[in-house]
TrEMBL record:
Start-end of Basic residues biased regions: 1-10
One of the GO biological process terms: methanogenesis
Organism phylogeny: Bacteria, Pseudomonadati, Pseudomonadota, Alphaproteobacteria, Rhodobacterales
Protein name: Methyltransferase
Membership in a protein family: Belongs to the trimethylamine methyltransferase family.
Species, as recorded: Pseudoroseicyclus tamaricis
Length: 509
């Protein structure tokens, strides 16, 4: 598969595409304290229960290399089971950095992880793609490239989330190479890599180093990749995930240790019990990163939710999900590790259910103090599908949250006593000097409901948000300009992909 350079898959760009209203790129500071849904005593009780679980029941680790690393740090090894003493855990947590940066190909897109800042990442990992025009289907490489182009032009999205959906028209063993090259060449933003096994992970690290004009070893001083490591809940780390974790940590690249703890299925049916198990699994993974390379950046990933007990299918955007997300933020702060959460839903259509479940998830994550919002835009079907329209609607919700973060102005001008006097009792403010001076900037400008940008509003009847979003993503795609990449680096990437493809890529397990 040739490198996707300087082209637009939708054909020649229409002359003079209408601009879509967006705020400029940049992380916005959360000015509010995170919501705390459990007490300090409850946080400590969950933490102590997780420590007890790791020191007694233990954690099954299937990779011999990972077990040897745990053993070297003083863990007790009993066959595949690793037991961790609370003192060992505390010692290793002490080396986790509270904040770190992620480099992008364009330094203007570098990111800070930690503090009161959050990284908004697009959806990553679904099997399918959907849009209004063709419905849900297997994705192709060219469609995936279009999704990446939209991620590039949507200013509110800070980071690409690790391949929007699988390009099923490419061979499974080598498609990651073409995905990485597309992420590098179509984006100037930071992007996430895949961490399934040693080879696939190392390919991402090496290609990122080529793109940045450095070496895999030197990237430890300037982290540029982030990967997600999922434990096999309950209480297990498999071989491919362990290999990916070790490869990333060995090169100083951050990972988000994320147990997949669904209450009633892969974790206890109570939220508290699910949080105990999630905390234990996260601790075990975080400790391993610090054994491999002390000081390696790492995040505590929270993904605890419930399942529909009638069908067993995952449920997201539920009261249990938001409570677990915010409690996880408290647990992450308790151990001093940055926190990853997600914007998720279980809806099958881009409809009211998808909107309210996503808004609930988004609120829970951001007001829970998340430092990485995974699947921030585009997630559908409980993670099975990436939607073009949902990408736009979620981007709009992210812009709304950013607008909510703007500090309240209580200056004399904002208090507006003169304007109130000018309008007088029973008057109105449409024509006051105070209003007219702020006419264009007073309020948040939406992506999908701005009259000037979307003439569909002026047609007979009205259109729904999903239809408007379909118009917006095509309008945005027409504005895409591929960011330049140094020719020698582009050639080196092509040569690397050709060599690794000839070698057979990476195994499927």
């Amino acid at each position: 598969m040739s490198a996707p350079r300087r082209r637009n898959s939708r054909g020649p760009r229409a002359s003079g595409p209408q601009p879509v209203a967006q705020a400029p790129f940049g992380q916005r500071r959360r000015p509010y304290a995170p919501v705390e849904v459990i007490s300090a005593d409850q946080v400590e009780a969950i933490h102590q229960a997780a420590l007890t679980l790791l020191s007694t029941t233990g954690f099954r680790v299937l990779a011999e290399q990972a077990r040897a690393l745990y053993a070297s740090a003083g863990a007790e090894i009993d066959g595949p089971t690793v037991r961790l003493d609370p003192g060992l855990i505390g010692e290793r947590l002490a080396t986790v950095p509270a904040t770190f940066t992620l480099a992008a190909r364009d330094p203007a897109h570098d990111l800070t992880v930690g503090g009161d800042l959050c990284v908004y990442a697009s959806v990553g990992g679904p099997a399918y793609v959907m849009d209004n025009d063709r419905g849900r289907r297997d994705g192709t490489f060219e469609e995936m490239c279009d999704y990446l182009r939209l991620v590039q032009v949507l200013n509110v999205i800070h980071q690409e989330g690790g391949c929007p959906f699988e390009p099923m028209d490419l061979p499974a063993n080598t498609r990651h190479l073409d995905i990485y090259r597309a992420q590098i060449t179509l984006l100037s933003k930071n992007w996430q890599t895949q961490t399934l096994g040693h080879l696939r992970t190392m390919d991402g690290i090496e290609m990122a180093a080529i793109a940045l004009g450095t070496t895999p070893e030197a990237m430890a001083e300037r982290p540029a990749l982030l990967g997600v490591i999922n434990t096999n809940s309950p209480l297990q780390l498999d071989i491919p995930m362990a290999e990916g974790l070790i490869a990333m940590a060995s090169h100083g690249q951050p990972v988000a240790i994320t147990p997949f703890t669904l209450a009633g299925a892969m974790a206890p049916v109570t939220v508290a019990g699910a949080l105990v198990q999630q905390h234990a699994e996260a601790l075990a993974g975080i400790v391993l990163t610090q054994i491999v390379r002390p000081g390696t950046p790492v995040l505590y990933g929270g993904f605890t939710s419930n399942v529909d007990m009638r069908s067993g299918s995952p449920a997201f955007g539920t009261p249990e999900y938001i409570k677990a997300a915010q409690a996880t933020g408290q647990l992450a702060r308790h151990i001093g590790v940055p926190f990853r959460s997600s914007n998720v839903n279980a809806a099958n259509e881009v409809d009211a259910q998808s909107a309210y479940e996503s808004m609930f998830s988004l609120w829970g994550a951001l007001m829970g103090g998340a430092h990485l919002l995974e699947h921030g835009a585009g997630w559908m079907h409980g993670g099975l599908t990436a939607s073009f329209e949902k990408l736009i609607l979620d981007a709009e919700m992210l812009q709304m949250m950013d607008a909510y973060y703007e500090p309240l102005d209580t200056s004399p001008e904002a208090l507006a006593l003169d304007a109130i006097a000018e309008a007088g009792p029973g008057g109105h403010f449409f024509g006051t000097a105070h209003t007219m001076e702020r006419y264009a900037t007073a309020f948040h400008t939406p992506l999908v409901s701005n009259w000037d940008n979307h003439p569909l509003w002026l047609e007979k009847g009205s259109v729904d948000a999903r239809t408007r979003a379909n118009t917006v993503w095509k309008q945005l795609l027409a504005t895409y300009e591929q960011p330049p990449l140094e020719e020698d680096r582009a050639e080196a990437l092509d040569a690397f992909v050709a060599r690794r493809t000839e070698e057979g890529g990476a195994p499927l397990n």
